[in-house]
Design a protein that fits this description.
Distance between the termini: 28 Å
Strand order of the largest sheet: 4-3-6-7-9
Number of helices: 0
Number of strands: 46
Shape: globular
Largest sheet: 5 strands, antiparallel
């Protein structure tokens, strides 16, 4: 690991609190001090402090209150007034002489406690750029899941270390990547969490739980058998839990399924749950397409609903959480035994059924059915982009709206303008940005005869209440990559891990880690 680089404008921060406790009972103790030792770490090949004339520190409390301070270039320590609190976040912004944002970084939640100094590492990088981080993954891989944990680390699980997306071999074990320190560690090694069984798999589904843990289900193990146990990685304890008592008749093991969380229930009984939907079982050459769906409660570690059924059974589908309240999931794309599936389905926490279009233009299905696509929520809508039809990669973006001024349903987007390097792609890393745009990076272009790995990146920009999309050049990764693992970090940063890259003998698994810091 490269030594930490500390910005010239800041070495440490001491926060002086006025309150000694938080919660219902607050004790006033003037002069109590909560000490926060802050280390800014930058990508090794990037000068994140270039053009930075001033640092702006913003402490965001769990209540939403924000406290702000500014430091000039000569400051090495700041003493400011605040209140000890749980679940705070710190955002650091580097501003130029015209007060424009040059670089930034944001922490995961942490506690300010007068009795315990907080040690905080923060990834500080230039905005609007891709940067390769200091250390690679322990195991090169593609087709894996990268799940952000509650403390800022990322669980990298599943995927293949050799082969292709249709013929994976050499399945590597899980590992942890810490983007703050730019360091990876293999589970079970020294200074890394203990490894459990069954973490080498391909075709898995994984997502973050409401508690900041990781939920992992399904896929095939190195022998080709489907993996049955549900596994939870507890980030605060650095250990795995195998969920007992899962009935394989009611929740069959599978691969190629969708996994996503949403809010269910009302009032005080409302909580987040995880939907597992679709996928395939059977032998790899003779798959059984599943319509079964189930709802998992990460607090009770049990499936609370196992009677849910897709209207259109499918594998290779995407589940996307939509809406400010997070109470609906859209399920799109994939294929069944007869071919690609066009209809879109909606799960509202209680019922699973087909999308019911309203309005003149919206439809109930994708105009261009697809798989190996991306479906991401941004600006209150869902963008369905890229993918393939089994022969060529697709350039046919679509928009799914639910109950806004355009109605409800699927609207094909016309490409109003595009940069010269714009192409349809499958296996790209696709992420929503705080601006409402969508980042699309890497992937593959298929033309029916061969495949071309891509390093280029672009933004998809959509003007509200229109049916037009614009693709704008967003730079490039340093190397062509497809089927990377993607994790959204605090502040909207995008972490790309591994993927399929170009080697001396052709395509091979990559171990690179890239970070994109949005404007």
């Amino acid at each position: 690991m490269r030594p930490a680089r500390v910005g010239p404008a800041l070495c440490g921060l001491a926060l002086c609190g006025l309150l000694a406790a938080c919660g219902a009972e607050v004790v006033h103790v003037p002069g109590d001090t909560s000490v926060l030792r802050l280390r800014l770490r930058t990508p090794p090949a990037q000068d994140a402090f270039r053009d930075v004339a001033e640092l702006r520190l913003v402490l965001v409390l769990a209540t939403g209150e924000q406290l702000e301070w500014r430091l000039d270039g000569s400051a090495s320590e700041a003493r400011v007034v605040g209140s000890p609190a749980a679940g705070a976040r710190l955002r650091v912004e580097g501003l130029d002489v015209d007060h424009r944002l040059v670089s930034s970084g944001q922490s995961a939640p942490f506690d300010l406690d007068p009795a315990v100094p907080a040690e905080l590492d923060l990834l500080f990088a230039r905005v609007g750029e891709f940067a390769q981080l200091g250390a690679p993954l322990v195991h090169a891989r593609f087709g894996h899941s990268a799940v952000p944990l509650g403390d800022g680390r990322v669980l990298v699980v599943g995927g293949a270390g050799a082969g292709d997306v249709d013929d994976p071999r050499s399945l590597p074990p899980a590992e942890i990547y810490d983007p703050r320190t730019q360091r990876a560690c293999a589970l079970g090694e020294a200074d890394c969490p203990v490894a459990g069984e069954g973490h080498a798999r391909f075709g898995q589904g994984a997502c973050a739980t409401p508690e900041g843990d990781a939920f992992v289900f399904g896929g095939r193990d190195p022998s080709g058998a489907l993996v049955q146990p549900v596994q939870i990685f507890r980030y605060a304890e650095d250990r795995w839990l195998d969920v007992p008592g899962v009935n394989p008749e009611r929740v069959p093991p599978r691969e190629g399924h969708a996994v996503a969380s949403l809010w269910v229930g009302q009032g005080a009984a409302a909580r987040e749950a995880i939907l597992v939907a679709g996928g395939q079982a059977g032998l790899p050459g003779a798959p059984e397409i599943l319509g079964a769906a189930a709802l998992f409660d990460s607090q009770t570690l049990a499936f609370t609903r196992t009677d849910l059924v897709l209207t259109h059974p499918r594998s290779g589908l995407q589940a996307t959480r939509l809406g400010a309240d997070g109470r609906r999931l859209l399920l799109s794309g994939g294929r069944d035994a007869a071919g690609l599936v066009g209809p879109v389905e909606v799960f509202d926490g209680a019922n699973l059924g087909p999308l019911q279009p309203q309005g003149v233009q919206p439809q109930d299905r994708l105009a261009t059915p697809r798989l190996r696509h991306a479906a991401v929520a941004a600006g209150g809508v869902v963008f369905v982009v890229g993918g393939e039809d089994g022969l060529v990669s697709l350039d046919a973006p679509e928009l799914v709206v639910l109950g806004n001024e355009q109605g409800t349903g699927v609207v094909p987007l016309q490409v109003a303008a595009a940069h010269p390097g714009h192409v349809g792609r499958r296996g790209a890393a696709v992420a929503p940005l705080p601006s409402g745009a969508v980042l699309i990076a890497g992937g593959e272009r298929l033309d029916g005869f061969g495949r071309e790995l891509l390093a280029s990146a672009e933004w998809l920009i959509h003007e509200e209440l229109t049916a037009e999309a614009t693709f704008v050049d967003a730079g490039a990764l340093g190397e062509p990559l497809s089927f990377s693992g993607l994790a959204l970090l605090p502040g909207g940063g995008v972490l790309l891990t591994g993927g399929l890259g170009e080697g001396a003998g052709g395509l091979e698994a990559a171990d690179q880690v890239w970070y994109y810091n949005p404007r």
